[in-house]
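Box S2. Input/output pair 1.
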Amino acid sequence: MPLKSPKNRRANKGFSIVEALLAMTIITTGLIPLLSLASLSSSISNRMRDSFIAANLAQEGVEIIRSLRDENWLRYNCFGVACGTTSPVGSWRVQWDNNLTTNLPVVVGANPPLNITADKIYTYSAGTVTRYKRIAEVTEVIAGTVTFI
């Protein structure tokens, strides 16, 4: 039986434990930053989504107040009451379907979170509770002059 040369014996062997541990350490060291980057990217994405929704809800609130203001000017009303008899200055809870005939805005007492419906509409009356709240502030800028913001 011929003897195998040391070169052939080495070629038939597998990895040593040290080589396997070293390979695992290198792979792990490379994967940990990638996994933490993926986690950070996910949390930044969630924050951006929340900021986007909040900005759009704030814009909607401004548009609702402006719509009510314009409707008031046409009727010479101050939030559904003749001007001079009451002041619209204060904090108001508004939602997308507020108007001056069937669904007046509500003076803020408690400020519950907005709900989201199955149709993705934010409202106070129905749907799943969200983390978002909205108050529209109406202030006097110059004494005797009411500004709707």
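Box S3. Input/output pair 2.
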Amino acid sequence: MDKIYVIGVDCGTQSTRAILFDIKGRIIKQSKVKLDILSPYPGWTEQSSDAWWNSLCFALREITDSNNLKYIKGIGIAYQRESFVMLDKNARQIRPAILWNDQRAIQEVEEMRKELGEDNFLKTTGKFLDTLPSSIKINWIRNKEHENYKRLDKILDVGAFLNCKLTGNMVSPLAGADTSGILDIVKKKWSKDILNYLNLKPTNMAEIQPSGSVVGKVTSEASTHTGLPVGLPVVAGGGDGQVFAIGVRSLSEDDVALTLGTGAAWGIHHKTYHNSSYFRSMIGCIPETYYFESVLISGSSTVSWFVNSMAVEEREVSKKLNMAPEKLLEKEIENIKPGCDGLITVPYWKGAMMPYNDPSARGITIGWSDYHGRSHFYRSILEGIAYEIRLVIEGYGECLGVDPHRIRIGSGGAESAFWNQIISDVTGKEVILSGTVENTSLGAAMITAWGLKYFKVLQDASLNMSHDGSVFKRDPKNHKMYSLLFKSIYKNLYVAVRKYTNELGKMVLNHELCE
């Protein structure tokens, strides 16, 4: 039997990955291209859409050659959600693309709460009225950049933009377009009410298709840039969070999918539509499912912030030893007891989503004394993110009546066995590490293989193209300590000081503290 290869792409916030997989999920060849993030003002994050395309082209040329080209059957793309680009009638970028974690539109959040109604927006889109959905930042452009808005012809998410560059068809997967805050998640159509509010028409938006459908074939122009063969099928993938869940085998309400990327995200599949303050409701890549996802905007980026700001020595030493500075930091905190001798951090570096829906929230660390040092602070950040995961998973039980048994983890911070054990100890759940760290690209490859009929159902593709890695089980003594701190302190901490962190956050984002 001839070899069967599929390409899974992950166009994320910080990089674009293109990986060639065989039908068993084994990596044949891979490439990663860094993406720059522009931040002209505090709270702003932007990129050029040209960078998305150029990075994809470079990555694809790196993994394709005359030896494997004839075995490649298709390509699917997973991508950073909520990020979008505005194009004019000539399909040219009007302004830099605004990214998912951009926080400039706090005033527009309040405006849309008054005009559209928070409950109505949540019921229609499954999303909270905060700074995350694309629609909020589109409204900011409408309010602040009138000339740019007049030139608007199309608004495309990253998936639709790249699908268009490859095939000429502006198609966004349902499990991705839904994060825009414009899609009616039950009707699976663009919401007329929200489009009317934004002075937009359905023709300003991409066509939407379910994950696994063939959106088109590689054009001769795209072939020249990417090295892909003309006519290669391009399959609708999905937003990176939904696709990631497929890549780590989170296929039901029993398994939480957790990624510790730039932002931490975790969620479960469910067959019935619900709304809750503990998750945002999205369309799943698995047919007839919803994916309930919770997000901490500052996930491993908080760890990166610590490394860049407070671990200068470790960064220098790690370069000489050719290892990650986080590994050196973990050695420094091995002897610090769980609970960090009473130091607790709430990791809201870039606002709070679930369950508070508070973009003005900011991080908190309490319990400082003269016996604490920098290492205590670092461990308290790792523990704080684990506390946040527990807080929300317990919320799933309250609103859905489910009690997931396992946390399936991959990507980013998942490479840290030390952190995985903390998560298991804090949550009390079994933590299963994926056999690959490239779960989002793998998920895109699984969807591609299923869409091209190599598997009957998507679940079969997930089970046959992936395998489990290390398993972490809670330490009963540590779990008891963490549970005490969680129930008596952490669950109540943010609510107790919310008023003051809100004021500080608003002052900074409104540039009141700038000279």
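Caption for Box S3: The chain has 18 helices and 23 strands. Residues 5-243 form a domain with the Nucleotidyltransferase; domain 5 fold (CATH 3.30.420.40).
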